[in-house]
Amino acid sequence: MTDRRKRLLAARLYLVCDSQPDAFLEAALRGGVDIVQLRMKDCTDARILSTAARFAAACSKRNALFILNDRPDLVAHAGADGVHVGQDDMPVEQARALVGSDRLVGLSTHSPAQVEKAAAQDVDYIGVGPVHATPTKPGRPPVGLELVRYAAERAHVASVIDAGARRIAVVRALTQADDPERVARELCSGVPPNKQQNAQPGVPRERVGAT
Q: Which of 92, 129, 183, 205 could form a disulfide with 121 if both were Cys (CB 3.0 to 4.6 A apart)?
């Protein structure tokens, strides 16, 4: 198992955000964020790469994983550990071909059928959500906790974890926090360490319950 996948297994708090100041990012990482996904829709490649350079450096300093949203073609140039794609983005097979076998590929799912399909694809983890309604996903209805349970067998932090998620993904909980370091610590305290150390690479046993 590669180092990236070992770190994925141990991760608990996944931050999804657009370009943010260094001070915010460093505070969130100090608080316990161990995966950061940079999501910059409709931006130029130059701007994405410029922001990614800052994010990659900050994550590297804290040994956190850095994931780039929706742009597998930029992952290597950005110094990212992998890519996250949605159902309407580039197919998983193409994303994997672009990032290679050593880097991570994550996939968003919003229905039981998508979860089932993901099980046959070469992804390292699946995101299940949004669990609750959120303005960060306009037009995307919340999936609720039942889909988290469904994914785990095949709201708030405690209920998402109880439903079987291995980690939680957050956006506004940190980006709108007055003290992102403190909030990150509180969120991490609600997520028990992952004990599934025998998950095989390429099998989407690692789930993200997005809130």
A: 92
- Answer yes or no: is 197 within a domain: no
Q: What pTM value is reported for the model?
A: 0.80
Half-sphere exposure of 22 (CA within 13 A, CB side): 7
Whether residue 48 lies inside any domain: the answer is yes
Q: Helices marked H in 62-108 — which ranges?
A: 75-78, 92-99
The domain spanning residue 185 has which CATH number? 3.20.20.70
Give residue-wise pLDDT tens across range 167-197: 788 888 899 999 999 999 988 887 766 544 3
pLDDT of residue 31: 97
Residues 59-78: pLDDT tens digits? 999 999 999 999 999 999 99
Integer Cα distance of 202 and 192 in angstroms: 23
Q: How far apart are CA 144 and CA 132, in angstroms?
A: 6
| Residue 196, in any domain of the structure | no
Q: How many domains does the chain have?
A: 1
Structural domain harbouring 117: 3-191+205-210
| Distance (Å, whole) CA 85 – CA 158 | 26
- Tell me if 198 is assigned to some domain: no
Half-sphere exposure of 26 (CA within 13 A, CB side): 7
